[in-house]
Each structure stands twice: as C-alpha cells, then as structure tokens.
Amino acid sequence: MEIIKEVNAYTPVIPKKKYSPVKEFFKNWKKQKLAFGASIFILLLIIVAIIGPYIAPYDPYEPDYNTTLQGPSNEHWAGTDEYGRDIFSRLLVGARISLGVSFLAVFLGAAGGIILGLMSGYFGGWLDRLIMRGSDVMFAFPDLLLAIAIVAILGPGLTNVVIAVSIFSIPSFARLVRGSTLEGKETVFVEAAKSMGASHRRIMFKHIFPETLGSLIVFITMRIGTAILAASSLSFLGLGASPETPDWGAMLSLGRDYLGTASHVVMMPGLAIFLTVLAFNLVGDGLRDVLDPKTKNE
Amino acid sequence: MIPILFIVSILIFFFTHLIPGDPARLVAGKDATLEEVNIIRAELGLDQPIWDQYITYMSNLFQGDLGTSLKTGLPVSEMFADRFMPSIYLTFMSMGWALVLGLLIGTLSAVFKNKWPDYFGMVTAVSGISMPGFWLGLILIQIFSVQLGWFPTGGAESWKSYILPSITLGAGIMSMLARFTRSSLLETLRADFIRTGRAKGLKESVVIPKHALRNSLIPVVTIAGLQFGFLLGGSVVVETVFSFPGMGRLLIDSIAFRDYPVIQAELLLFSIEFILVNLIVDIMYSMLNPKIRYVT
C-alpha cells in the first residue's frame, strides 16, 4: 500500500484539458493570414448582404437624370450610372442578390450531390452505375454551357439561374462524396455499426457523411466563387437578373455601352465580383491547408 | 463515348423542344393566320410525334443536315461554316498561350518556392481564377483598344482581333494550370529519382525540365483537358464582349430568338468537342506515362 502511495505521489499530474477540434481549427486558421483576412471580408459582405438595403445612402432603383454617369465623388462614392442611380447603393443592395443566388445554388447542388454520392458509393451495383453514367452525361456539357442551356429552356430570371447553377454543381458533388463514401464504407467503425444492426440511412448520414465533411467544406467554398462567376456571367449575357435589378453582373452588362465615357460604371461592379470571388478562393485554399495538412504550403 | 453521345443527343433534342414558344408561329410571324401557322408547322415536321421528329433529326444529322435556322431560313451547317473556324482558332490560341504561360509560371513558382517569383506567380494565378472573363475583356478593350488603339474593339477581321479575346479567354485556365503545375512539380521534386539525379551531378537545367517537369505533367494534362470545357463555355461570354463572330455569340443570339435548330446543333457540337478532347487527354496519359495502359 505504501509503495502504491509513493508511486502516485511521483506520477505527474496531467491537466485535464479537453481537446476541442473547433479550438484547434481556429488556432490553425489564424495562422493562415491571407485566408483569415479573406474570411473577415466575406463576413463583412454577408453582413452587408443582410443590412445592405437599410444602410444604402440612396434608393438603388430611383433614377436621377441630373446626375447621370458621374464619376466617384464625395456624394456618390462609386459614381452614378446612366440613369443617375448611385452605384455604391446598388452594390450594397446587389450583395444580397449575388451572394444569395450563389449560396442557394451551391447548397441545393451540394444537397443533391451529397445524397446521390452517398447512395452511389454506399450501395454500389446498378445504382452506382446509373448515377455515375448520369453524371458522365452531365459532364459532357461544359459547366457554363449547361447553365446557359438550362436557362434557355426555363427562361431568363434569377430563380432559373439558381436552378441552372445548382444542377451543374450536382455531378461534381456526387463524384466527390462517392469517392469518400467508397473509402468510408470499408472502415472498421462502419463495419461495427453494421454488425450492431444500424440502418443504411444511419450508417450513411451518421457514420460516413461526417468523414466527408472536411473535403466538402473546402469544395463548397470554392464552388461559391464559381457560382458567383457563373451567375454574373448569365446576368451579363442577359439570361439572369432583369436589367433594372441591382445584380452585379446585370450592372456590368448595362454599363458596357459607356465604357469609353464612364468606365467606373463597369469597373465598380466588376471589382465587387472579383474581390468576392477572390475572397472565397483564398478561404477555400486556406481551408484546404488547415483541413488537409498534407497539401500545406503547396 | 458513343452511348454518352447518344444520350446527350436525346437530352438536347427533348430539352430544346421544351423551350417555351411556338417555333411555327415565330417563322410565320405575328400577323399570320392559324392556317398559315399550321402549314409551316407541317413543313417543319413539328406536327409529327416527338420520337418521329427525333429519328428524322438524327437521320438528317448523319447525312450532314443540321436543320434550318428559324431566324434566317439558312441551313444551320451553312451558318456554322463561317463561324466554326474563328471559334476554333480563338479556343486553340487561348489554350496555347495558357499552356505556355501556365507551365512557365507554375515551374518558376515551384523552383523558387517561397521567394518573390513564387509569390508573384501565385498572386497572378489566384487573381486570374477569380476574375470574371467579361470584366477582364472590358478592361483590356478600355486600355488597349480605346486608349492605346493597338487592337480592334471587336470582330475577327485580322490576327489582331484574336489577341485580346484569346488573352481574356485563356486567363482563367492559365491561372489554374500554373497552380497545378506548381503543386505537382513540388511533389515530384521531393521524389527519390530527383535526389538521385542531383546526387550524380546533373545540372538543374536538366533535372527540372527533363526529369521533374515531365513527371509532373499528368495532373496538368488532366486539368488542361477538363478546362477545355471552360473554354467552350467561356467563349460564349468572351465572344459577346468582343462582338466576335463565332459559335458562342451565335448561341446567345439564337437563344434570344428561340432558334431551336441552331441551339440544339450548337449544344451537340460543343458536347462532341468536349468529349473528344477528354478522349485525347486519356490517350495523352499513356503517352506521358507508359505505365498507364488501358485494359479492355
């Protein structure tokens, strides 16, 4: 007894610090300076998208023919367009449209792709072949072209842009999740869950799906950038938002006639799209480094 | 490939027929009577069941007949004849310089890792990926056409007309190729055979291009092939910005008029091009790495 007491007295006391993956993530995230900065920018952008219409200094729809095509000034920080509307106000309100369309499209595409990918990888057999051949067919169309074709069928408009962009996102998500599911279903914990009689749905969503989350988060972030570009391209081509809507792509499309005389009409919305997509790409790169340390610094 | 093309052709045919609006009414004009519209409908074969229309379409397609444009009344193949080659030149020119610059920037970034050429290369790459093509095109027009007057603002009259559109179209791919070349090359540079090469006294000018770069090219070729689709999609936007008389702009004009014979022929052609390029990429794999051989 004495000996045991003595041994206990010399055993170092390890502080009971609970490991938190979230804390670990934020610790590593702060080290990614560029991506950290970009994530702050995105956060601000999301806030602008929510409160934009309330903080806009001017009515984004109200024309003022006395101030048409004015360059940036103290009154109009980003200048005015051909109808005299304040471009800065339109950009603030447009943030909600541009972000809303791309977020919604990517999340719908991700939801469809996740379900199809999980089913394809988990069940295999004819279902896998059917889903993969289906995605092969969709991959036979270049992304933007597929979106253009869908909008051509459904007609122009933001709702149809969301549908088009989400449809072209589905096969990429399905492929990604299928790959992870094929790996995941061979793991010991899935075998254990199966032997305990867990249902297919439970195994797919409770055991395999969380394993795919790391790569999914990276991919979703990257896809939001792609979706913003695709949606603004469709609006630029006149297939997305109607011209009077303060959508960034539509604003740019309207402004191109004034490129020689008032280039700010084109430059400002273009800069907004560029910086937003850049921020999402930088965050995606940073997330990949944090969530997949193998690729760090490459 | 053939089954995929077959399914693609069915999808394109049926989906373009879902485009709202009556093509017979479009051809006949607003003031045409119902009788006249019905005559045109019969002439276009639109009164037939949809499957019969598909079979007729496919049998005509195999004979080189892509249909007749509802807007111009010209055979679609004739409309493509003038526009196909400018688009092909534009696409290959974009891919050409994107490959050269992408490989160069990627290689320099990997060789000078964490030094200024690397930072410069990667800032260029991430910016190129994030920049909307139509915006870059408009900036280039503003600087090089409007202000400096070096290049025309649009059209496809001379080689000069191709410079700005091809830079705009290739920028995204160049950036992506630079990133992939860098990461692939960094991985290869860590391999044992590179260490062996350096240990036996090979110069860096031999190790990098002959040993490292060649072995890093497989993922780069994959990306180049996949990105070809981006070029086809991007050409629609870029041709619109530069008023370039190519296939992409024709597609947008046709959508505006709901000229579905042109739309379906274009979509089919784009898909065939895309699938063919992916096939060429598969063949190139085995050329770059003889270990990869397909067993059938």
Automatic annotation (TrEMBL), chain A:
Residues 95-284 form the ABC transmembrane type-1 domain. Its main location: membrane. GO terms for cellular component: plasma membrane. CDD domains: TM_PBP2 (cd06261). It is found in: Cell membrane. Belongs to the binding-protein-dependent transport system permease family. This is Glutathione transport system permease protein GsiD. It comes from Cytobacillus firmus (Bacillus firmus).
TrEMBL record, chain B:
It comes from the Bacteria. The chain crosses the membrane at residues 88-112, 119-141, 161-180, 217-242, 262-285. PROSITE patterns: ABC_TM1. It is found in: Cell membrane. GO terms for biological process: transmembrane transport. Keywords: Cell membrane, Membrane, Transmembrane, Transmembrane helix, Transport. One of its GO terms (cellular component) is plasma membrane. Coiled coil: none annotated. Residues 84-281 form the ABC transmembrane type-1 domain. Pfam families: BPD_transp_1, BPD_transp_1_N. It is a multi-pass membrane protein. InterPro entries: BPD_transp_1_N, MetI-like, MetI-like_sf. Its main location: membrane. Gene3D superfamilies: MetI-like (1.10.3720.10). SUPFAM superfamilies: MetI-like. Part of the ABC transporter complex GsiABCD involved in glutathione import. Probably responsible for the translocation of the substrate across the membrane. Belongs to the binding-protein-dependent transport system permease family. This is Glutathione transport system permease protein GsiC. It comes from Cytobacillus firmus (Bacillus firmus). The lineage of its organism: Bacteria, Bacillati, Bacillota, Bacilli, Bacillales.
